[in-house]
């Protein structure tokens, strides 16, 4: 079992730390995928473009996380969109961000209860 379902925030790291042990195994299907894609020029260009955009987004968000712009456990949808692609924050940006952050309820999480009123639709 890789994940702790009650403690999804994993102590403040950016990314999915439990997956690090599986990277070696995951490299095999990724290599197979790319070996097929590289042969098809029509499919390669959109896949390469999407991959480049996602890698760029990851690098920006890693930078944001290191500067504290993306909070390690208290992000909400509003907080995320408030800082989306922002590289610098002014005082009013920080004040607005603090209103949007909501720390997880660890006791509810341990008990398996819903922490938030989550409705994806």
Give a quick summary of the entry.
By secondary structure, the chain is an all-alpha fold.
Characterise the protein shown here:
Helix content is 53%, strand content 0%. 5% of the residues are buried. With 121 residues, it is mainly α. It has two domains: 14-66, no CATH class; 71-110, no CATH class. The protein is built from five helices and no strands.
Properties at a glance:
121 residues; mainly alpha; 5 helices
Structural class: mainly alpha
Structural domains: how many? 2
Shape descriptor reads: globular
Q: Would you list the SSEs in sequence order as H and E?
A: HHHHH
The helix content, as a percent range, equals 40-55%
Cα end-to-end separation: 29 Å
Mean pLDDT: 85
Spans of at least 5 consecutive residues whose pLDDT stays below 50 are: none
Number of strand segments: 0
Strand content: under 5%
Main pleated sheet? none
Q: What is the radius of gyration?
A: 18 Å
Alpha plus pi helix count? 5
SSE diagram, text form:
Blueprint: H1 23-37, H2 41-66, H3 77-83, H4 91-100, H5 106-111
């Amino acid at each position: 079992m890789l994940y702790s379902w009650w403690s999804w925030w994993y102590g403040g790291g950016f990314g999915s730390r439990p997956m690090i042990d599986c990277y070696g195994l995951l490299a095999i299907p990724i290599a197979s995928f790319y070996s097929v894609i590289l042969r098809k020029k029509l499919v390669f260009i959109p896949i390469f473009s999407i991959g480049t955009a996602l890698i760029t987004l990851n690098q920006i968000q890693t930078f944001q996380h290191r500067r504290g712009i993306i909070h390690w456990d208290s992000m909400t949808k509003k907080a995320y969109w408030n800082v989306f692609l922002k590289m610098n924050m002014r005082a009013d940006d920080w004040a607005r961000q603090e209103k949007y952050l909501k720390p997880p309820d660890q006791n509810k999480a341990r008990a398996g209860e819903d922490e938030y009123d989550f409705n994806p639709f």
